[in-house]
């Protein structure tokens, strides 16, 4: 099962928004939010909440891609998120999430009995390439038990 399929199966909002996972790797993920009228705002573009969910879902996908082999001993959880809306988004948008620390450093902290935290940065772009939003999500791997 791919990372996108796993998220679609376990996170209902991914299915609700019809998110499309275009690229899923352990350092970078690209997810698309199709242009859908039922998720528009008052000016006809994607609603801020839909863009937040798009970006947060992209961040979760990169976490799953990077740390999926650690799920037997730790649960990934979002600690906090901050988003900035930069330009008007119209039509379909994509979110590119990038892991903010090397995975081996995070795993080393987990191995040392710590609860590591690490940032994921996300850029939201419209079809013409303009950055319409930027988000940072801080994640943790909470050890089981």
From TrEMBL:
Domain of life: Bacteria
Stored InterPro entries: DUF4442 (IPR027961), HotDog_dom_sf (IPR029069)
Pfam hit, one: DUF4442
Protein name, as recorded: DUF4442 domain-containing protein
Species: Streptomyces griseorubiginosus
């Amino acid at each position: 099962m791919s990372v996108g399929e796993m998220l679609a199966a376990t996170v209902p909002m991914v299915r609700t928004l019809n998110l499309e996972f275009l690229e899923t790797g352990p350092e970078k993920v690209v997810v698309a939010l199709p242009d859908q009228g039922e998720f528009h705002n008052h000016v006809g573009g994607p609603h801020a909440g839909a863009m937040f969910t798009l970006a947060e879902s992209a961040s979760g996908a990169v976490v799953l891609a990077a740390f999926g082999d650690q799920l037997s001993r730790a649960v990934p959880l979002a600690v906090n998120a901050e988003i900035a809306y930069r330009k008007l988004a119209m039509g379909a948008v994509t979110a590119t999430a990038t892991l903010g620390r090397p995975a081996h450093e995070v795993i080393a902290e987990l191995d040392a009995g710590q609860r590591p935290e690490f940032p994921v940065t996300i850029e939201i772009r419209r079809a013409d390439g303009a950055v319409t939003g930027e988000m940072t999500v801080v994640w943790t791997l909470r050890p089981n038990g």
